[in-house]
Amino acid sequence: MNDQDLIKIAKEFGSPVYVYDAEKIIGQYKRLTNAFSGIKQLKVNYAAKALSNISILKLMKSLGAGLDTVSIQEVKLGLKAGFEPSQIIYTPNGVSLEEIEEVAQLGAQINIDNLSILEQFGTRHPKVPVCIRINPHVMAGGNTNISVGHIDSKFGISIHQIPHLLRIVENTGMNINGIHMHTGSDILDIEVFLYASEILFNTAKQFKDLEFLDFGSGFKVPYKEGDIETNIEELGEKLTLRFHEFCEEYGKELTLAFEPGKFLVSEAGQFVAKVNVIKQTTSTVFAGIDTGFNHLIRPMLYGANHSIRNISNPGGKIRFYSVVGYICETDTFASNKRISEISEGDLLSFSNAGAYCFTMASNYNSRYRPAEVLFYKGEAHLIRKREVFEDLLRNQVDVSLDVNDKKKVSVSKS
């Protein structure tokens, strides 16, 4: 997928627009499975929250992936996309027992991350297989909002609470068939991940009927040229060896599971927007575009870096621009960024727009959410229509209050 493809798509479907390269997704999936080709029972559960368009889910299913979900709605999307319930793992946080029970009735693999819900669920449904999410107290992640394995995290059951966990399992007689961990996104140091894995192995030894170990994900992808990324091949080599050793000690061949989201779809996505205005001030040159953090919130929320290219003038003179959106508050994508010379009407493309971009979009300022396009073998396929005015009103209830009503209201006095 090249710049001319993106320009053509923006002209056909309008801007802003999200474009996903299917072949990049396929390549990333194969890269991960090849890195762990030495594992007999490998399960890659795609994290639906990264990009939940049903066409993307169907693509993942066709590759052989399972599905990692965090809500009953994602579970139902997975079923709609054709996944079998047994191919779906459900890992919620802070949801009601009723939602977990409803998902259990649908047949998905339940993954519980707190003692209270574990005891309640185990008491009421001791025969339903349950995975347990532990908190290894290992810090990973490029931003505090996406680091979930540290001691102050709301996620997982602390490894220091294992005695309580074991007592609940014994008292309820519940069926624990998996152990899970997730340290956070943007893992930089493989040794830290392997260290956390040892904690998972040590925890797993205390359960005799496990079927799988889920190592989460959080593999870092490059956000700019020359950026560091998780060395999947090295991790595959080292973790495969250690996993085989553990299975031999455990006396049973277990399934090794991952739940990548960003790793599979981030680099596949491009977000294309049109330049509305060039505004020179005393301190900078603003390039104001036809979108804002209502469509791409990661730079404002996480300080995330999305490389920006002027695909209308890729060979132009390099200048410094602050790229800003049209939302009526601070709405900055990049400050003083080197970009080839921009003119009003040019198209800019934001890289790494496949993960946690459209899924976090909103209608703030009553703006329409953009279209999504899947590009495969030279063809662009519309997979979500651009919203229209009627979409803003859908599900609203129009109540007209007559504030000039002169009717008197009698008030009884005691």
UniProtKB/TrEMBL annotation:
Segments forming domain Orn/DAP/Arg decarboxylase 2 C-terminal = 18-354
Instruction: Provide the alphabetized UniProt keywords.
Output: Amino-acid biosynthesis, Decarboxylase, Lyase, Lysine biosynthesis, Pyridoxal phosphate
Which pathway does UniProt place it in?
Answer: Amino-acid biosynthesis; L-lysine biosynthesis via DAP pathway; L-lysine from DL-2,6-diaminopimelate: step 1/1
Q: Which residues bind pyridoxal 5'-phosphate?
A: G218, Y356
Residues of the Orn/DAP/Arg decarboxylase 2 N-terminal domain: 24-266
One Pfam family hit: Orn_Arg_deC_N
NCBIfam families membership: lysA (TIGR01048)
By what name is this protein known?
Diaminopimelate decarboxylase
Q: Which organism is it from?
A: Gillisia lutea
